[in-house]
Amino acid sequence: GFEIDDTSIVSITIEENHDDHDDDDHDDHDHDEDCVSGDANMDGSIDVSDIVLLVGFIVGNNALDSSHDCADFIHDGNIDILDIVALVAVILGERGEVATSAEFTERDNVLVMNANGIVGAVQITLSHGNDFEIELTNNSLVAEYHTDKNTTTLIVVNPVDDIFTTNNDYVIEEIIAATTDGYIATSWVKPGAIELSNAYPNPFNPSTSFDLNVSSAGFVSLNVYNLNGQLVDVIFEGNMDAGIYNMTWNGAELSSGMYILQAVSAEQVSTQKLTLLK
Q: What domains are there in the chain, each with its CATH number?
């Protein structure tokens, strides 16, 4: 379910003005070309129902009523939580200073988020056993999940603190958090955790250094992705003993832009946003 604190701002209807065309030209245009950007349910307005539909589409619970282009609110070629965050900002307005990082911890079977500002949306992928049960927070705008065999994907829009509750074991495979400024750094702290220190310098050119804290021996991968989720570099992949490792990444062969540094161990994921400026 979802709640809206300010019920006076729930829908924006956009009237489109079109130049006059003759009938033949009008017939050549598809309906989707005249859609309102972000209007996922094609009702002529942008409101919370569009956010609900987009969330369900991303986690895998439903199809879209509109074309891909209509639902792609920020026009980057993808339908993801960045579109959701941008839609929320249009509908409800800015709510305060946006976060630059978010830390997730487990307390009494509850996954809790602690951020240094406003987080627009969180998407988490879990792996688990066959009898997994989960209850999402009620303290959000929209919260929805989809379970396929031993994998659950969930999205919480406008999260405050609690994300979900479960009495079952699980492994966090991925955490993505976003604001109106884009993706932000995330970390998952629990016994046996792996942590990234703040990279320095950041922004950087062409290299930056950081510490990797491995609490328990095991397999570790340390990768760099672009903002489209494409792997651009493998810094390390293999077994590590427990300890603190000083690491350096050189981005000399890549173009300027924002990248996501991701450290993964058997039980946790830690990410950090890096900016390469040439």
A: 11-92 (1.10.1330.10), 191-278 (2.60.40.1930)
